[in-house]
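// run 5 | inverse folding | seed 20
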């Protein structure tokens, strides 16, 4: 029996960001399962088109699964590199169902925030980077947000930090129900002098460069600075954190115990 692993992510067009995240994750997957054929796919049509225009073509999920079958893989597992079970994750699961053929229906791992225990594991992995956060400093995690019902995961993660005793860590999103206005209100109540912004996104791509850390007046950096906070931006995707990558490997193990 020949096993294959497909690492599926939204993708990014930001130079170097993919290799610092998905590239590192792929190397760790290959070390963990040296006998498996490992391939990668990008789920966003826009990202694939823009990468192809500059000569960096990447396959979609269906094409990558066909490639695995052509390489003699008998059964495949898909590592879903997504933060929460939103629109992109469910599209991935549907793509895998529709692509079922020679490989059967590939097993798809859970996203990062899928159940209550995941919230605390993810919070702990982020806090590894900030073990001694001063009381006068707020750590703000900027997520993407969605109109999908999975948007609740952001609020749940915010609550998990408080349960862990970190009331100065806040989760907010570019889209969805937990935006910058909600964050601004909570920051006024907490009254920090300094705000550290970092992405709750696997890859520090355009949203981070533009919406979080941009110099324009509408960016989170600019608006929080205008509100009187000293603002520091850390443009480091979640996929760059060792603890987060360990969680993704654990999810793949749970979905595919036969690997």
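// decoded
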């Amino acid at each position: 029996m020949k096993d294959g692993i497909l690492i599926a992510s939204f993708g990014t067009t930001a130079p170097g960001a993919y290799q610092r995240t998905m590239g590192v994750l792929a190397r760790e997957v290959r070390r963990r399962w040296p006998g498996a054929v490992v391939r990668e796919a990008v789920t966003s049509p826009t990202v694939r088109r823009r990468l192809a225009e500059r000569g960096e073509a990447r396959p979609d999920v269906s094409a990558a699964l066909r490639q695995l079958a052509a390489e003699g893989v008998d059964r495949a597992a898909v590592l879903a590199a997504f933060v929460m079970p939103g629109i992109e994750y469910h599209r991935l699961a549907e793509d895998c169902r529709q692509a079922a053929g020679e490989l059967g229906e590939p097993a798809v791992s859970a996203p990062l925030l899928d159940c209550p225990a995941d919230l605390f594991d993810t919070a702990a992995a982020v806090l590894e980077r900030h073990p001694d956060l001063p009381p006068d400093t707020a750590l703000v995690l900027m997520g993407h947000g969605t109109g999908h019902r999975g948007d609740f995961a952001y609020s749940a993660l915010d609550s998990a930090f408080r349960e862990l005793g970190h009331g100065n860590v806040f989760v907010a999103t570019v889209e969805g129900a937990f935006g910058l206005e909600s964050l601004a209100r909570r920051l006024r109540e907490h009254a920090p002098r300094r705000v550290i912004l970092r992405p709750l996104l696997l890859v520090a791509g355009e949203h981070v460069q533009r919406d979080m850390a941009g110099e324009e007046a509408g960016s989170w950096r600019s608006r929080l600075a205008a509100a009187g906070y000293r603002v520091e931006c850390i443009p480091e995707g979640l996929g760059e954190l060792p603890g987060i990558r360990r969680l993704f490997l654990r999810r793949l193990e749970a979905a595919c115990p036969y690997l």
